[in-house]
Amino acid sequence: MKENIYIYYTNDLHSNFTQWPRTAGYLKEKKRIRSSKGEVHYIVDAGDHMDRVDPISEATMGKANVELMNEVGYDVVTIGNNEGITLAHDDLYHLYDEADYPVVCANLQPKSGQPPKWLVDTNIFETDSGVRLGFIGLTAPFTAFYDPLGWTVTSPYDELETNLLELSEKTDIIILLSHLGLSEDQEIARRFSEIDVIIGGHTHHLLRTGEYVNNCLITAAGKHCVYVGEVILTYDHESEQISTKEAYATNVSDHPVDQGTAVLLEELQEKADLLLEKEVVVLEEPLDVEWYKDTPIMQELTDTIRMWTDADAALLNAGLLLGALPKGPITYGDVHRICPHPINPVVVQLKGDELIEVIRASLKRDFMEFELKGFGFRGEVIGRMLFSGLSINIRTNPDGTEAVTEVTFSDGTPVDKQKAYRIATADTFTFGRLLPEIAKSEKKDYFLPEFLRDLLLETLKRKALQR
Q1: Exposed, middle or buried: residue 149 (CB in 10 Å: 0-12, 13-18, 19+)?
Q2: Is the whole-model pTM more than 0.90?
């Protein structure tokens, strides 16, 4: 006898709730179809369902996301970095308290005390015919972020070594829910032949029909749940093994909206609006924002991050503020609206010559106009870099470009090219190759759980008091 097992999956929604009613409708429809035929099916998620860029997720610290997944009927999920490192310890510890599904994540534990009741390394389902499916979850090991938040994140490879032997003995099929990224999924498939399927995310890759590495089927469905993934496993009961594996990703952007989900979202939005409408400050004058110019509020925010981190100097990009603030009462929702990024302050150690190179690179037109996507940034362009604690002489060339002619500290002290300085900035620049000198710095001190918008709020309060 052969039996088909259907697994529907999502990954990296990032709280794109405009898309969610269609995604939910598709999943509910598939669930009804499979149930009516008596076919085995599961709905799973590979992480980053939540993103605090959305007011609903911000107001509820992700609990609304859990409620939405309950409403669809998820069976098992893992967590992504947006669930894991953008919440304070207690908010993450209690995030899934009301979840109707287990959360598998083998490489995450609190540094002290008992793990939350919802967190397990693995979870095993058994079909009516006796086929045992083992799910194991792994999340990106961002140690520098998890550690100050009170969590221990371990090597995914070590956890696979620890868990797979026992899981192999207890199951017929092993499925990894991975929030590690495509290259890591491929390496895991090469190393661990026990894994039958990897359902992945994190790097927002789309594998329309999957790919095979070492007989392991690797899948992923892009980002924002424009696509929903499906894995079909055919299990041969006579040979007691999988006979075929198939993977598909379906574009659901034109699928009918599920009205139940749409109504629930409206209710959650109303609750979020009430939570975020709390007045936090009153402005005596409007505050303008310009992405390619120095503005007082952006300069004051840059000053705040320098003072708050006790750094020698600071630099922040104007693209962090997405809009202006009007005169009068300002709510927390207003602050979130103009600074929605899940970005933390960081202090990096740079030698003087590296600092000068960062300043020069950041003032180039192509850098300022770069339309950054990812690394926590949720804006449009990087924008002009502003500096605190530094005095920079700039020459404007005939073609409109700018050239740095001299850099000193604000008190006139010259920058020693060989001396190490503590420079505060946005953690965005510690990733990728935007500013290589910052990314490759061997000493980085992340400040968590505060986001830049928390420092923006402090800046606005201080500004109001000074009036």
Answers
A1: buried
A2: yes
